Amino acid sequence: MLLQTARQSLVCFFLLFVSISFSFADTPIVPEPVIVEQTDFDLSESQTTPNLYVENNQLYLCFQTKNNEGRNIKILQLDTEPQFFTTFEDFCFDSTENPYHPLAKSFGSSKLLFWQTEDVRRADTSFQQKVVTYDNIIPSSYDFTEIAQFNNYPEADIFHPQFEKTEQRIYCEFYSSQSNDQSNNRYELSLRSFDAEEATTYPTNLHFSANGRTALAPYGDSLLLIKSWIVCTQTEFPNCVEWATGYKAYVIYENKISNIYALKSFDVNSKEDQPTDVYRAKFAEGDIYALASSRELITINYNQMRFEPLVHLSAYVSENVNRFIPIQTIDHNMIIVENESLSDQTLIRFDREWNFVDSTLLPFEGDVSEISEFTYCPEKDMLCYAYSTNLFENDPVKRIMLQSVIFNRDLILNPPPLLPESFVVNQNYPNPFNPTTNIQYAIPQNGNVSVDVYNIIGQKVTTLYNDYQDAGDHEIEWDASAQASGIYLIRVQYEEQTKSVKSMLVK
Which domain range does residue 478 map to? Predict the structure, then answer.
């Protein structure tokens, strides 16, 4: 309603920040939304490709804008006290560059900006991909030092690049083309390295086929690239009938592959069973890798160069999962589960020993098309993410929204269940039964509870429960294998109250 009123009164805006919290032991914290005006009051302007990052405890949002004059890249410097608001903003280019899909990255003193420009000289949809360094807080074209310009690649906008820093170099992995590999590898990726301080790019360009996202990790003065692989092991003309797949680690030193390790391998019946994304997260105890295909978290034994299982997530998630994103907070380990629908993201919390604590759905508005990386700010104990969405039906204009989840040591993600108002005993089920049945009851407050079974002549047959019990709903199973067919009375006593139900055992 707020957005409709703003549009009708021509009060234009381009970025909506919403900061939320879940249930606390104290009063819930739900700050009011902050609305920032749309650029030049242009209702036609769309914002896409959100990129959220932290530098020196300062939060930045980089995104692409598009209006009737073309595309540009804009970066906002954000403050979070007492709530999100923009402290500085600027465009990166004039109208001549027409940039696509920006990605800003900071490695200490090395600040990088990656973007793509459409090559208008070609008939097909091809892109030039560029990397520059900059010194100022907010990058601008006057501040750029270009260190890399990659060749033209069709459909390069479907794949975001990755950056990683080793002791000597910064590596950039970027999309080059769809793969012609006869296996299930879908993408051709290229890897370049450069010295950001000297603004120079090393000449060697490595190429990899992959079935999804790879993971990059520093490995001393080398780079570790981890990806899945697949190969046919038995062919019966004209098709392959047996496949071997798994994960490999490529050790890259000075843009040359110095070693390859098989981290894990197993047999599959189809090339469609090749694993997909590998996601790396930095934890205090070391790197953790999330494997979406097998729904598990692993670590790497670097001495033996093999996977070591950490947590299997099948009990907490469905089979149709795009990827897992591990995040470590001050007090907990968390997993963000990205499901098939972008607006269906689940946050699962564990303690530091990976025992389940609680879970909740993350909030989104509108028809979500893109989501940034999830960014944790330890100083605020706060998780942030940005996403591009259509807020109105049949409206092509996209808005970027920034959402925060404020944590607290007393945080309860799922609110406690409502306690029953009175003492209730339900009819056992099934009834008649053979040989087991379930007895459900509810107590409004903590108290002493006993559950006894009597036969038709009033003799006690068994005691199913006799102890102090917490308030809430409870269920007990009775196995009557040792009893004869007949009618039995199940009596539940809660403090001074007693209720009974009749049951029939039929053998």
Answer: 424-505
